[in-house]
Structures are given as structure tokens and as C-alpha cells.
């Protein structure tokens, strides 16, 4: 059966507006469409394809596990899930892991746990959740309400209550509304969808101190910043701040759907038998692939090379910007990079994305004013150079149009 981009409009719900091309094959940091055209991938499936497309070790692991065991109900546990939980807890502050299928589900679990923990230890009045404007925590109704972009949660009826927002990097604003009624503060230690915004050190340390003072749990949403993206296994490791709960997904599965919530033994105790669950969470296929991803990424060689590759991107982008003067700032950490457009090109991020695709380079946006890159952590240097050359041609097109 022949399918094309037009088929999407015929049979798919119109909540997406995908590009005109239909990718059919990927290898490393390159992708091919139905017409055989080749693209450099700087998007990484939105920070998901942490080891590129069809990494041979992941393909091998998936095939091997696929011939053993795919799925069990949660009446049983399984070896890949147990090994992955061991490795995640050994590598982080956490003692316990809960597996889901996505970042939204991991955040849903984290927020439910925070409410449950507060109820059990402090009473039902302690239920306020504080999040940050422009934050993004998923698309379930609870997580999209907690996310700080009202456009994603408006229009679906009454929203979950006791959720409030303040500006990111504004500690005074947080001080004004946090209280002993606050059960949790949730934040990205590097805002992704909100524009690739890094936290100021005094801000993130202040958030931790305020949470401790008011017996509120600090939840770090590391769905986008985790699994080597910043050059640390998790971004908190470079901030000298330890959260109470951490969520991880995207890169964790290298392209296979999986999410995880990590926390301490004391806090985890509030999710007693029957209080939360997931049909597919912790399935052997996903956990086997994620275990292999973690084995590969959590090594000094990979993590240190992320920072070297970051510099290649920064040097190349600064050189391009000296020529065309379109960016006010190149920001982000590791291989989560945001090219913030200056006043002259404000609101035109999508123009650069479309022009990039026309020049056989795949990138992302983070709002209307930021072009975002989230490539594979093992992208070859020559693909970085070629991708930037294609990006420069895209910029030239936008500037001259």
C-alpha cells in the first residue's frame, strides 16, 4: 500500500502538521526520505535519539530481547527492569525507580507521589504545586496544567487545582508564594521547550533551600536534559543541587518509548501497592534497550565528548552569526543548544526550521524565537560540519528572502 504525506491528512487526527517529507530510513545522524533525499539530523527526535538512528548495539539488544520476552503484567517483574533500576539508582541520588512509557507519565507519577507524600505526612492542606512559566512537563491534563504554557492547557474544561506558576530564574517570585502548604516545586534544570534557558546557580540553590525550609519536595524534570545531554549523566549533577524526585525519559530509551521516576526510599514508600500503575511501564523490551543506552552513555568517554562537540557547534554557529547577524545569543548546555533570534528576526524561528529542511538539515524550534538543536551525543564531527554548512545556506535563504 502506497502512503504519502497526503495520506496523513486523510487518516490522521489533525493535531500535528508534519513536514512535507516522509522519512523512511535512518542511520547514525543521517535520515533518508521516500524520494531518497538525505538529511543531517540535528533534531534527534526532540532530544530522543541519543545514540542516533539504528545504533547497532541497540538494534542487537532489541532483537535479542524480542526473541525472549516482550510483555508481562505487573503481577510479575522482569530481569531487564530490575537491572535498569539497579543501574539508575547506583548512578544517581535515588534508591527507587518507577517505570512508565513517557516523560508525561513519569511526571504524572512524580506529581501524584508528591501529593500523596504530603497528605500522609502533613495533611490534606499541603497540596500546592508550584511550577515555572514557560516550563513543559507533558501533555496529560495534569502535567499540561502544571506546565507553564497556558495555551497547551486552555480549552479543555476545568483544570486541576492548587497549581501556581512563577517566572523561571526569579527567586523572589517563588519566595512570595511558597509556604508550608506547598507540597512540591517542579522545575526543569535546563528549560527546553521554553527556549533553552539555563538556571542561574543562585536560583537553583535557592529553590532547593526554600523547598527544604517548607518541607516541599523538589522535583527535577530531566526528561529533556537527562541521559548525558548536558555532558553530565543528569543535569543536577552539574548544579550542586540534589532533587527529591527526578523524572527521565526521551534519551533514556534512545528512541524506544520509556520513562522513569527516581526517588528515595522514604518518599517512594507513599506509593503503596495499588496507588499507581502502568500496563506497559517496565516492559522487558523497553527496559532492555534503556539498559544498553545507559551502559553506553554513562561513560567518561561519551560524556566528556559531549562538551567537545558542544564547542564545535558553538564555534560554528558564532562564525555563521558573524556573517549574517541573526542570533542574539547561543545558549544551552552540552548538546541541547538554543539559537536565540535577535530583534530583527524575532518570531521567525519556524522560517529557519523550514529553510533548514529545504536544505536537507533537520532542526527544532523552542518557541517562536529560538532555533533548537538536540542531536545524537555521538554525532560524528563531519556531520556537525556538514549540518552547519547546510544550516548556513538556510540562514542565507531567510536573510535574503
TrEMBL record:
Give the Gene Ontology MF terms in alphabetical order: identical protein binding; N2-acetyl-L-ornithine:2-oxoglutarate 5-aminotransferase activity; pyridoxal phosphate binding
Q: What is its EC number?
A: 2.6.1.11
Keyword annotations for this protein, in alphabetical order, are: Amino-acid biosynthesis, Aminotransferase, Arginine biosynthesis, Cytoplasm, Pyridoxal phosphate, Transferase
Q: Where is the signal peptide?
A: none
Supply the enzyme class, top level.
transferase
The record's subcellular location field reads:
Cytoplasm
> What single Pfam family name could you report for this chain, choosing any that match?
Aminotran_3
InterPro entries, A to Z: Ac/SucOrn_transaminase_bac, AcOrn/SuccOrn_fam, Aminotrans_3, Aminotrans_3_PPA_site, Class-III_PLP-dep_AT, PyrdxlP-dep_Trfase, PyrdxlP-dep_Trfase_major, PyrdxlP-dep_Trfase_small
Residues where N(2)-acetyl-L-ornithine binds? 139, 278
Q: Which PANTHER family match?
A: AMINOTRANSFERASE CLASS III, SUCCINYLORNITHINE TRANSAMINASE
Q: What NCBIfam families does its record include?
A: arg_catab_astC, argD, PRK01278.1, PRK05093.1, PRK12381.1
| Protein name per Swiss-Prot or TrEMBL | Acetylornithine aminotransferase
Source species of the chain: Aliiglaciecola lipolytica E3
The upper taxonomy is:
Bacteria, Pseudomonadati, Pseudomonadota, Gammaproteobacteria, Alteromonadales
The gene coding this protein: argD
Amino acid at each position: 500500500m502506497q502512503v504519502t504525506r497526503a495520506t496523513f491528512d486523510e487518516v490522521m487526527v489533525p493535531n500535528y502538521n508534519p513536514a512535507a517529507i516522509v522519512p523512511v530510513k535512518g542511520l547514525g545522524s543521517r535520515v533518508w526520505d521516500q524520494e531518497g533525499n538525505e538529511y543531517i539530523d540535528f533534531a534527534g527526535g526532540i532530544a530522543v535519539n541519543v545514540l542516533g538512528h539504528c545504533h547497532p548495539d541497540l538494534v542487537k539488544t532489541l532483537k535479542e530481547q524480542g526473541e525472549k520476552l516482550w510483555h508481562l503484567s505487573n503481577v510479575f517483574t522482569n530481569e531487564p527492569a530490575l537491572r535498569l533500576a539497579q543501574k539508575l539508582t547506583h548512578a544517581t541520588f535515588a534508591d527507587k525507580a518507577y517505570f512508565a512509557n513517557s516523560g508525561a507519565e513519569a511526571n504524572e507519577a512524580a506529581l501524584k507521589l508528591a501529593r500523596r507524600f504530603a497528605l500522609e505526612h502533613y495533611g490534606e492542606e499541603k497540596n500546592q504545586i508550584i511550577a515555572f512559566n514557560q516550563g513543559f512537563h507533558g501533555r496529560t491534563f495534569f502535567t499540561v496544567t502544571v506546565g507553564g504554557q497556558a495555551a497547551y492547557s486552555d480549552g479543555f474544561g476545568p483544570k486541576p487545582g492548587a497549581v501556581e506558576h512563577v517566572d523561571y530564574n526569579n527567586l523572589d517570585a517563588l519566595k512570595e508564594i511558597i509556604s508550608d502548604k506547598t507540597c512540591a516545586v517542579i522545575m526543569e534544570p535546563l528549560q527546553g521547550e521554553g527556549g533553552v534557558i539555563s538556571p542561574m546557580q543562585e536560583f537553583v540553590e535557592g529553590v532547593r533551600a526554600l523547598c527544604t525550609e517548607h518541607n516541599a519536595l523538589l522535583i527535577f524534570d530531566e526528561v529533556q536534559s537527562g541521559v548525558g545531554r548536558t555532558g553530565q549523566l543528569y543535569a543536577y549533577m552539574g548544579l550542586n543541587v540534589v532533587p527529591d524526585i527526578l523524572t527521565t525519559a526521551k534519551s533514556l530509551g534512545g528512541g524506544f518509548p520509556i520513562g522513569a521516576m527516581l526517588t528515595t526510599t522514604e518518599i517512594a514508600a507513599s506509593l503503596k501497592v495499588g496507588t499507581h500503575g502502568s500496563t506497559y511501564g517496565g516492559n522487558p523490551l523497553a527496559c532492555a534497550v534503556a539498559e544498553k543506552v545507559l551502559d553506553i552513555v554513562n561513560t567518561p568517554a561519551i560524556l566528556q565528548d559531549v562538551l567537545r562537540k558542544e564547542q564545535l557547534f558553538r564555534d560554528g554557529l558564532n562564525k555563521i552569526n558573524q556573517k549574517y547577524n541573526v542570533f542574539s545569543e547561543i545558549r544551552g548546555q552540552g548538546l541541547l543548544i538554543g539559537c536565540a533570534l535577535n530583534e530583527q528576526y524575532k518570531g521567525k524561528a519556524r522560517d529557519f526550521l523550514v529553510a533548514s529542511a529545504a536544505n536537507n538539515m533537520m532542526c527544532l524550534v523552542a518557541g517562536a524565537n529560538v532555533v533548537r538543536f538536540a542531536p545524537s551525543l555521538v554525532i560524528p564531527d563531519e556531520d556537525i560540519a556538514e549540518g552547519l554548512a547546510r544550516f548556513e545556506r538556510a540562514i542565507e535563504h531567510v536573510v535574503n528572502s
